[in-house]
Amino acid sequence: MKILLGLLFTLLWSSAAIAIKLGLHATTPLLLANIRFLIAGALLFIYVYCIKRSYRWPRREEWRPLIILGTLNTTLYLGATSLALDKVSAGLFNLFVTVNPFLVALLSSVWLKRKITGKEWIGMIIAAIGLFIATWPALADSEFQFAGIIIVAAGMTAMALGSVFFKKANLALPGLVINTWQLVIGGVLSLPITYFFERDKYVLHFNYYLAGSLFWLVFVISIATMLLWFYLLKQDAVKANNWLFMTPIFGFMLSAAILNESVTTYDWIATVFVVAGLLISGNIAVQRVGKMKLKQ
């Protein structure tokens, strides 16, 4: 069951880049992200506090962690995702998601005192080689926009920090409530950023690109997939992020099928390395980590 949940998360997570790419046919990156955050946050808030009414409000000491999570996971990571996908392909973006487990492993070893085994490091190094193989043709392309990779790297760093902080904070709140507040807080914090960078160049067309993109990003990604992400993080932050090693496989298939992006030999070779890294690194972590139940 845990393997199936990991694969489902990876498939859904990789589809987010496709949905954002389609949404960019209708609007600008930060505006798309902001609309997504506010709609998802508002819907969750109504469900949690107006319909369900069985969840408590955060206590005073819980607001600071929620603000940090909203800033890292929503404002910075998801905002950077929209910006980056305006410059790089969906397939390449999904491949760069594999950087995240390296950052989480490093931060966990320092912050959570979680020992990383030699086999785990070897697996992640193998996956990193695959990342370099796939990136090399793009780096050699004069039309490649290096700024996109910088933005992706910044977003991945924010996500890794959010993953480790979530584990360390160990909030006594259900994942649904945490996700609600990180979307609401992150969306509000994103408003001035969106206004500052896009106030003179924003575009907004109400068409099927916008409707389809927002439906998928709000209901499938921001709500359903993030709840699954929190569940996996509750088990172990490093293990959960190791599933991100699989995103290139689903990402390349989806981008080729839906966006008609080309998949090169470099991409497939890189995918082999990434999967090998997952098998060596990810499965080792599963055997060593004690399980924690998600508090409801």
Polypeptide structure, described:
The chain crosses the membrane at residues 29-51, 63-85, 91-112, 121-140, 146-166, 178-197, 209-231, 243-260, 266-286. The protein has one domain (2-52, 63-288). The chain contains twelve helices and no strands. The chain has helices at residues 2-23, 29-52, 63-84, 90-96, 99-112, 118-140, 146-169, 175-198, 208-235, 237-242, 247-258, 265-288. α8 (175-198) crosses α9 (208-235).
List the helices and strands and how they pair.
Layout: H1 2-23, H2 29-52, H3 63-84, H4 90-96, H5 99-112, H6 118-140, H7 146-169, H8 175-198, H9 208-235, H10 237-242, H11 247-258, H12 265-288
Helix pairs in contact: 1-4, 1-9, 1-11, 2-3, 2-8, 2-9, 3-7, 3-8, 4-11, 5-7, 6-12, 8-9
Structural features:
single chain; 296 residues; mainly alpha
